[in-house]
Amino acid sequence: MAGKFVSPKAKGSLMTDILVKLFVKDYKDVEKVSVRTAYGVLASGVGIFCNVLLTIAKMVIGILLHSVSVTADAFNNLSDAGSSIIGMIGVKMAEKPADKEHPFGRLEYIAALIVSFLVIEVGFTFFKNAIVKIREPEELKFSLVSILILVLSIGVKLWLAMFNRKLGEKISSQVMMATAADALGDVITTAATILSVVFWRITGINIDGFVGLGVSLVVMWAGFGIAKDTLEPLIGIPATWEDYEKIKHFVEKYAGIEGSHDLVIHNYGPGRSMAIIHAEVPNDVPIDVSHDYGPSHSMASIHAEVPSNYDPEYSHEIIDRIEREAMEQLGISLTIHMDPVETRNEEVLQAKHETEKAVEALDPRCSIHDFRMVNGEKQINLIFDFVIPREYSEEKGNELTLTLMDRLQHHNPKYQ
């Protein structure tokens, strides 16, 4: 009886499942920080092992074949191994608690920057060697075994691409998805090096230098990519939409949270970020505390609007619970500032509703928050933050503000 055919893709998926089950405890609970960390360690470890193995194999083959393109491709894999090492360092350091000397250490980024310069230097060296090979080509040596090993390396890289893509989809990791795309790029690079050797074997024309030139450019491009990814968080980048939604969803899932705004994230290294967000909290609503806790890794802060009629001690209890659960579930250490707001006065709520309608009609991209009202005999002061898109100019912002004041006073002449 014939055996059942199993496609390479299915085999690769099976191997991925086996590795996940072996090395990731509670692998199905992908929302837990500890589980996501384990996935990160697994992906980095597999990447380091495979890329170091490919680097050694290709360096030996490059020397045996006298091929600059194969040797350059070996160092391309070495740069990938360096990226995986940086990822491993970032994941492992994120597990360590901060100390008083280094509460917001960025050692991972500094290490990554050094590696990026080394990768660029290696790429530039092979660029120069390729130029020499183009001017003074050496006779290549053909070895079927070496070609087969290079073909096998393509298979390894294809599996790495599928491996990282599957893990990336499982835990919604953009880093792993990017690693998968990079592995597919390496497949093309290695295929080009094989092509140069086979082309020489068939035609006697040596294009190894030209292919090596292209591979060296790929290596330098990888170095610049690492440097760019490292410098951006050091300089400061805005929160991603995924980060915003993650924190916003966490804050607003509590019974009684009406809304959140003004998210700001300060990145102090992989797994070490500080977020600032404002939350609106209504009156007389209990907080559900029945959650599964995971380890804490990151930092964050949040501003919360609480009803002005709340007992301060009760408000403080709510804040403490949110801080504790954010620490244990998301790995975010929250520092929450309370902003008291009116939530029962119908006159205030009506004025807020009128203001929101006026803003919506003025520009749907704008919004308001932290609304308060001071009612006097001759005028009514409406006090709130008017939020406009960052790309709007100061002149346009002032124009919108004046127009909004105009419309509100047209609705009620007492409004200021």
Description:
The chain is α/β, with parallel strands linked by helices. The radius of gyration is 29 Å and the shape is elongated. Helix content is 62%, strand content 12%. The chain is built from 11 helices and 8 strands. It has a 4-stranded mixed sheet, with helices on one face. Strands 3-5 form a two-stranded parallel ribbon. A two-stranded antiparallel ribbon has the order 7-8.
List the helices and strands and how they pair.
Layout: H1 8-23, H2 33-65, H3 68-95, H4 107-135, H5 144-171, H6 174-203, H7 208-235, H8 241-252, E1 259-267, E2 273-280, E3 298-299, E4 302-307, H9 312-330, E5 332-333, E6 336-341, H10 346-362, E7 367-375, E8 380-387, H11 394-411
Parallel strand pairs: 2-4, 3-5, 4-6
Antiparallel strand pairs: 1-2, 7-8
Task: Provide the β-strand percentage band.
Answer: 5-15%
Question: How would the global form be characterised?
Answer: elongated
Per DSSP E runs of 2 or more residues, the count of β-strands stands at 8
Number of helices: 11
Give the overall average pLDDT.
78
Instruction: Tell me about the largest β-sheet.
Output: 4 strands, mixed
Helix content: 55-70%
